[in-house]
Write a structure and sequence with these properties.
The complex is a heterodimer.
Chain A (H helix, E strand, L loop, with lengths): L2 H26 L14 H8 L7 E3 L5 H7 L3 H9 L32 H14 L6 E6 L6 H13 L3 E7 L2 E2 L2 E2 L19 E6 L3 H16 L5 E6 L17 H8 L3 H11 L4 H25 L23
Parallel strand pairs in A: 1-2, 2-3, 3-7, 6-7
Antiparallel strand pairs in A: 4-5
Chain B lengths: L1 E3 H15 L3 E5 L15 H5 L4 E3 L4 H13 L3 E5 L10 H8 L2 H4 L9 E6 L14 H5 L5 E3 L4 H13 L4 E6 L7 E3 L13 E4 L4 E5 L3 H11 L6 E5 L2 E3 L3 H11 L2 E8 L4 H12 L9 E5 L8 H7 L3 H12 L2
Parallel strand pairs in B: 2-3, 2-4, 4-5, 5-7, 6-7, 10-11, 10-13, 13-14
Antiparallel strand pairs in B: 1-8, 6-12, 9-11
Helix pairs in contact in B: 1-7, 3-4
The chains are: A alpha/beta, B alpha/beta.
Chain lengths: 325, 324
């Protein structure tokens, strides 16, 4: 990879980290309402899968994938307004966090019934196939959601039609509090791919190089019409399920172990091995991401809060005769 | 052109698929078999497997994939082989499709049609007789239609396909081949949201939809010397055509709502409440409802007949209301 790309990838990792940290801090200060779901620690998965996508490819991120939004092209300011529940958010305040997608950039908003996006992604990939468009859909889901029937229904259909979709399981070892061994009886979620007639791969989700290499293969396969892939990224969320969850169900030792495998630290080690001036890159990047997030926060704070009657907007595309009701 | 109710649906889908290449049909056995009831007979040969898609037995997938197609500008028709099976796709309807536009702040529409055979009277038993429209009547973002004639079946299907919002289209399988009527050979569309005045009358309004429309019409004819009945066929359940309901009740002063679905918590309950509130001064009797009894729809003929509304029960309800 070129030095420029190496630095760019570092920028994305740091931007997401800065976003996550700032959101957590604002939540602690009581500046945010509702649930806040940090993806801190999982940045390499979203950067690895989204960075080399085309603008007309689609992603289906889950609730802690704000990094996917950023890398795929969402305006950081609107993303922050979305998290604030403001009018300039993608949902115009009708829901917060990542339930409002940015469809113009090929980013679909998930519901809270995680994995419900997988059939949607499969349907979209079916359209790409029948219209002979060489586009791909990337559907993210957690290992907890892997237990849901929608995952089976979507993967089965994708296998039947060899659809251009990549299923990305972000296995962060806990579904809220429930550990892997109480979630599934196989060694890896990816083992299930065999049951659908396509390839499953397990990758270290904190190693950006490994994620990118696997993502590239899976995306190429989908784009060439060779069918879906199930990629399981083993990663870790540093925070609880949401910010109010202290995550007492895991040990400090476990958290520290994972922090020592931090995706950003691993990338800095790589930059050092390449003999770049890491100190300079770090300082320069820190300044850039701080400014970007400052700007996003200022925009979100200044964005108007929606008025009550706006609740009745956007229900129907072809509005119904309210007089008659 | 003399057509059955089922043929009217088939024609509407065929014509819409012919008119717009973005219209696709997804469902179980809709292609090779032409549908369990032959609603889509011939469509696979005409439009090919990319547009008439035999899906795995996965209702959640069928509806969810329809949402994905809709975001891409397609207009999928999604068949539930029996409408009873719609419960397996419930989350995709009420959370995924119904909120799609809302949670994206108006960035997209969701032009999907979910359709399938509903209703009893055919000894289908517990899982092939259901009328689950009330489950969805409670959900903002959806539209619901339930035609009772071949004309409406065709015209409402066309309207549903052309509508940019998710429409649940309740076919009545009892009517599939039991009714046959003349429909115009030229193109027509029945607008969503408009009820039909089936019979004018001055004494009493019966508000109904689906297969009971025919039993109510027969009762109105049979009782003509006794009571002058007005019959409103709702056709669209969500949104309700309250203008038509109010106008009729204000004229007659009496309202009976008849549907085949369970009476408790049915759509009739909402209509009754609105009439009570909006037409109180005009009423000369209690707003009455007739729906199915508080049981599942059983298999054995005597029990099924006991549970569902029928001609006799309709006449009895009309007499009770007329006596006020």
């Amino acid at each position: 990879m070129t030095e420029q790309k190496d630095r760019e990838l570092y920028y994305w990792l740091r931007l997401i980290r800065e976003f996550e940290d700032r959101i957590s801090a604002m939540d602690k200060q009581g500046k945010l309402m509702g649930g806040v779901y940090s993806g801190k620690g999982q940045e390499a998965v979203t950067v690895g899968f989204c960075h080399d996508l085309r603008w007309d490819d689609w992603i289906f991120p889950l609730h802690r994938d704000l990094g996917a939004f950023l890398v795929k092209g969402a305006d950081p300011r609107r993303l922050m307004a979305q998290i604030f529940g403001k009018r300039d958010g993608f949902a115009k305040g009708k829901d917060s966090y990542l339930h409002g997608g940015d469809l113009g950039n090929g980013i679909f908003g998930a519901t809270s019934m995680l994995a419900a996006t997988l059939p949607v992604a499969a349907g979209m990939a079916f359209k790409f196939k029948i219209r002979k468009e060489d586009r791909v859909a990337i559907a993210f889901f957690g290992e907890g959601a892997s237990s849901r029937g929608d995952v089976h229904e979507a993967m089965n259909f994708a296998g039947v039609h060899k659809l251009p979709v990549v299923f990305v399981c972000e296995n962060n070892f806990y579904a809220y509090s429930t550990p892997n061994e109480l979630q599934f009886g196989v060694d890896n979620v990816a083992d299930r791919a065999a049951g659908y007639g396509f390839k499953g791969e397990v990758v270290n989700g904190n190693d950006l190089h490994a994620v990118m290499a696997t993502a590239r293969k899976a995306i190429d396969r989908a784009r060439k019409g060779e069918g879906p892939t199930l990629v399981e990224c083993k990663t870790y969320r540093y925070h609880g399920h949401s910010e109010h969850d202290r995550a007492d169900y895991r040990t400090e030792e476990e958290v520290i172990t994972w922090e020592s495998r931090d995706p950003m630290i691993l990338w800095e080690v790589y930059l050092e091995k390449k003999k770049y001036d890491v100190e300079a890159i770090r300082n320069e990047t820190a300044e850039r991401v701080r400014k970007a997030v400052d700007d996003a926060v200022a925009f979100a704070e200044g964005s108007p809060a929606p008025e009550g009657p706006e609740a009745m907007e956007d229900l129907y595309a072809m509005p119904i005769d309210t007089e008659a009701r | 052109m003399l057509v059955t109710y089922i043929e009217a649906i088939r024609q509407a889908m065929d014509e819409e698929m012919d008119r717009d290449k973005n219209v696709v049909l997804l469902g179980e056995d809709v292609g090779l078999l032409g549908g369990a009831f032959k609603v889509s007979a011939g469509l696979l040969d005409k439009y090919g497997p990319d547009r008439v898609v035999d899906m795995p037995i996965s209702e959640s997938l069928i509806i969810g994939s329809g949402v994905g197609l809709a975001v891409q500008g397609m207009r999928p028709i999604l068949e539930m082989q029996f409408i009873d099976f719609i419960s397996c796709g419930f989350d995709q309807i009420v959370n995924s499709a119904a909120t799609l536009r809302y949670r994206h702040g108006g960035q997209t529409a969701c032009p999907i049609v979910i359709r399938g055979p509903s209703g009893g009277g055919v000894h289908g038993g517990l899982y092939h007789s259901q009328n689950p429209e009330a489950w969805f009547f409670h959900v903002p973002g959806l539209k619901i239609v339930a035609p009772s004639t071949a004309y409406d079946a065709k015209g409402l299907m066309k309207a549903a396909v052309r509508d940019d919002d998710p429409v649940i289209y309740f076919e009545n399988k009892f009517l599939y081949r039991r009714i046959k009527e003349e429909i115009p050979p030229e193109e027509f569309v029945v607008p969503i949201g408009k009820a039909a005045l089936r019979k004018e009358g001055g004494d009493l309004s019966v508000i109904t939809y689906g297969s009971p429309v025919h039993a109510v019409m027969k009762a109105a004819r049979d009782m003509a010397k006794e009571v002058d009945i007005e019959v409103i066929d709702l056709r669209t359940l969500l949104p309700l055509d309250m203008n038509a309901i109010r106008a009729s009740v204000r004229k007659t002063g009496k309202a009976l709502i008849v549907h085949e679905a369970r009476q408790t918590g049915g759509i009739g309950a909402e209509i009754a409440a609105r009439i009570a509130q909006e037409c109180f001064e005009d009423l000369d009797g209690p707003v009455m409802r007739l729906g199915a009894r508080e049981a599942h729809t059983p298999f054995a003929p005597a029990m099924e007949d006991y549970v569902l509304p029928n001609q006799e029960k309709i006449i009895e309800a009309i007499r009770t209301l007329a006596a006020y």
